[in-house]
Amino acid sequence: MSAQLDQLTAQAANDPDTLETTEWLQALEAVIENEGPERAHYLMERLVDLARRRGAHIPFSSNTAYVNTIPVHLEQHCPGNLEFEERLRSWMRWNAMAMVVKANRVDGDLGGHISSFASLANMLGIGFNHFWRAPNEEHGGDLLYIQGHSSPGIYARAFLEGRLSEDQLLNFRREVDGKGLSSYPHPKLMPKFWQFPTVSMGLGPLMAIYQARFLKYLHARSIADTENRKVWVFCGDGEMDEPESMGAIGMAARERLDNLVMVVNCNLQRLDGPVRGNGKIIQELEADFRGAGWNVIKVVWGPGWDALLAKDKDGILQRVMMETVDGEYQNYKAKDGAYVRKHFFGKHPELLKMVANLTDDDIWRLTRGGHDPHKIYAAFKLAQENKGTPTVLLVKTVKGFGMGKSGEARNTAHQTKKLDDDAIREMRDRFAIPIPDDQLADIPFYKPADDAPEMIYLHERRKALGGFLPQRRMQADETLVVPPLSAFQNVLDATADGREISTTQSFVRIISTLLRDPSLGQRIVPILVDESRTFGMEGLFRQIGIFNQQGQLYEPVDKDQVMYYREDKAGQILQEGINEAGGMSSWIAAATSYSSNNRVMIPFYTFYSMFGMQRIGDLVWAAGDMRARGFLMGGTAGRTTLNGEGLQHEDGHSHIFAATIPNCMPYDPSFGHEVAVIVHDGLRRMVTNQEDVFYYITLMNENYPMPGLRPGSEEGILKGMYLLQEGPAEATLRVQLIGSGTILRESMFAAELLHNDWGVAADVWSAPSLTMVARDGADCERWNLVNPTSEPRVPYATQLLQASSGPIVSTTDYVRAFSEQIRAYVPKGRNFTALGTDGFGRSDTRVKLREFFEVNRYYVTVAALKALADDGVIEQSVVAEAVAKYGLDQAKPNPVTQ
C-alpha cells in the first residue's frame, strides 16, 4: 500500500469500518495503476450517479486538498540552468526595486510598486525562459496579459536584454519628455513594447478570455493559423474580486478555450490587507473555476514541504494546512521561523515532533510553491499541454518576497515604494547583488558584461523562443483594398417617392455591401449582443452564420423561415448574448488583430447606445490604450428616439463620454448618406492608412425620408458640420439652426415655422459631429496660445458661421453639454443657445418626449425668437405670442429636475 493510501486511510478518524474503507481505496488505487486515472474517474462518477439515483444525498464539492495538484512523482523538472536563472531573477528584482525607489527619492509622489513583481519573479522567469514564444515566421507568438503592477520587473528584464537603457529606467513614470517608461502596461504610450493594457484591474482576465476565443475564430475561418498559440493572463488574487475577472469564466469553458492559461498570483494580499483573512482564497477560486469547467492546477507548497507531507502518515499536517486561514499564513511570512514553529507546527504535538530536527532557519526556508522553479515549470508544462478546457493556475506566493521587514508579507507591501538604506542592504545581501557598501546609497542598477555567461544564457533562451517579449506589432504587413464611396450608392441616393427609412437600415445596407466586397468581405466582424432583431440585422444569420466551434447541434425552431438562427463552425457573426462587456472585449480582440495576429479585421459592434459607453466605459478607454481600430455602432441612440422604453433605456450622454477619448472619432449622423461617408472615411483611415483611431457612430430607429448626398458636402460631414439648407435670401430677420441625429429634423421643421409664422429666415446646419467641431476649435485655441506672434488660426465653426447672420440655436437629442462644446468657437458677439435632453429618460411617444425635454420644433422656434428678442431686433412680446401660439406650458417643471 502506498504512503498516500496510508494517509487517506488514517485521515478518517471517525470511520466506523476502516477495513472496508481500505479495501475500497486499494481497489481504486489498483485501477489507477493498471488502467489509468481516466478509468478511475469514470468509475467514481458511475458510483456517485448510482448513489444519487438510489436517493443518497451526496453534496457536490469542487475542492481538493490544500496541497499541490501535481504529485511529486509526476513533476516535470525545469531543464534550464537554474543557477543562471536564479542570478538573473535576483538582478531583475534588484533593478526593479532600484527603479521605483530612485524615482521616489527624486519625487516622492511618483509612486510605483515593488512587491507584486517580487512575488511573481519566479513565474515570469520560467515563462520567459521556457514557454512564451515571440511572433516570427514560424509562430504567431503567444499573447501575454501581464499583471499591471509588476511592470517594473518587466522593464528590469528588458534592461538586462539590452532593450531598454539606463536612462529610460531612470525616467520610470516620467513620460512627458518622451524618454520615460509608463507606470503600467500601456500600448498607447509604449507602442512597440506592451501588447495589452491590464489596468484597470479585472479587464485583463476578461479581455484575455475573449482574445483566446478570437484566436479560435480566426483559425476556424481560415484567416490565420492560431492552433499553437496561447493566451497567458496574469492577475492577482485580490483582482479576482472584480466582477469582470470572473464574469466570463463560464464562456471560456463552454467554448473549450484550451489556448487560454490564467495564472492567479495568490500572495494573499491586496492593497489594504488580506484578500481572505478569514478564509482561503485558493480554495475559493478552485471551487469557482472547477465548477465552471476549468482545468485547475494548484501550486501551494515548495519542495521543502514534500518531505514533511510524506511523513504525514496520519494526515495531521494536511488537516492543519486546510484549517489555517490566509490571515494566519500572511502572519507567518511576516515573522520568522521561530514564530512559524510555535504558531503553525505548534497547533499539534505531532507536527512539532515532525520538525524537531529542523532549525528555525530551516523552517523559514520552507517556501511557497510560487517561489520554486521546478514546481512552476511543472505546472506551466501541464497547462501548456492541456487539451479541451481552459486552465487556471492558482499559485501561492509571498507578497514582497525578498523585501524583508520593509514589506514582505505585510499589509503595507503593495504601496511600498521607498526603502531605507538598511532595507536596501538587506535585499542586496539576500539576493547576492555584487554592489559594494560604498555605492549602496546611490542604489545603482546592476548589469553584468554582455559576455557574462548568465547574459549569454538570457539571450539564448529568448532566441530559442523566437525573440523578445513583450513586443508589439504597430502595423499589419498585409494590404486590403477599400472600395470607393460609390460602392454605397444605395445609401448615398435620396430615398425614392418619399420612402422613409432609418439610419439603422442605412447601416445594414452598408455592412451588407461590405460583406460582399472581394477584399474586405471576409474581414468584416459583426458583433452583436442579443439585439440583432432590434437593429434589423437578423438577415445576416443565414447569410454569414453565427460563429460556434461546435457548429449547430440542433435544428432551429425557425428553420422554415428565410432569416433563421444559423450557427456554424466558420460563422462570421460573434453573438455574445446579453453581455455588453463580452461584446466589447470581442470587439477589442478584433480591433487590435492587426497587431496581435498580423491580420486586419474590421469589427462592427452594434449595441443599444444607452448600454454602451456608460456600461463599458473602462473597456472603451482600454481600447483607446490598445490603439484599437474599428466601429462602435450605438443603436437606438438619443434620449427621445427610443420611444416606449424608459428611464434607463434612453441615451442622452454617450457622446459626452465618447468625446473624452482622444482617438475615438464620435459621430451622430442624421441621414444615411452621412453614415456612408463616415464609415467610408473610417475604412480609409483605419484600413488603408492604418491609423490608430476608432469610430463611435450613433444610429436611430426613426424612419424618415433621406435627402441623399449633395456632392461637395463630404468634407463638411467629416469635419462635423455643413450647411444643409439656406433660408429665404430676401428675409430681413435671420437665425442659424444647428442639429444632429433625428433632432436635426426638428430644426428643419422649426425653420418652416419661423418663415411661415414669423417671417424669419433660418439657415439649417447638419452637425454630424459637434465633438469633431469642438476638437478643431480647441486645437486652434492651443496653437494660438503658444504662437502669439503668428497669424491666428480660425476654428472651423467660426469659418462656417462668420459669413452668416443672426443668433445660433443648437439642438440635439443629448444633454446640452454636447452642444456647449462649440460655444467658444461661434463668431464673437453672436447669441448662442443650446437645447438638449438633460434629465432622466422616460417612456412615451417621440412627440411627447421631445415636448417634455423641450427640443421639439416649437421649442426650437421659440428659442430662436427669444434670441432675436434678446438681440433687440424683435419685441419680447413676440416671444410671448409664440409661447401661447404653440401651447408651451409655462408652469411645466424643468425636465432637468424630473
From TrEMBL:
Reaction catalysed by this enzyme: N(6)-[(R)-lipoyl]-L-lysyl-[protein] + pyruvate + H(+) = N(6)-[(R)-S(8)-acetyldihydrolipoyl]-L-lysyl-[protein] + CO2
EC number: 1.2.4.1
Keywords attached to this entry: Magnesium, Metal-binding, Oxidoreductase, Pyruvate, Thiamine pyrophosphate
GO molecular function, one term: pyruvate dehydrogenase (acetyl-transferring) activity
Domain (Transketolase N-terminal) ranges: 111-300, 368-432
Occurrences of domain Pyruvate dehydrogenase E1 component middle (ranges): 495-707
Sites where the protein binds Mg(2+): 237, 267, 269
Residue ranges constituting the Transketolase-like C-terminal domain according to the UniProt record: 720-855
InterPro entries: PDC_E1_N (IPR035807), PDH/Transketolase (IPR051157), PDH_E1 (IPR004660), PDH_E1_M (IPR041621), THDP-binding (IPR029061), Transketo_C/PFOR_II (IPR009014), Transketolase-like_C_2 (IPR055152), Transketolase_N (IPR005474)
Cofactor requirements of the protein: thiamine diphosphate; Mg(2+)
Keyword Metal-binding: yes
Function, as annotated: Component of the pyruvate dehydrogenase (PDH) complex, that catalyzes the overall conversion of pyruvate to acetyl-CoA and CO(2).
Protein name: Pyruvate dehydrogenase E1 component
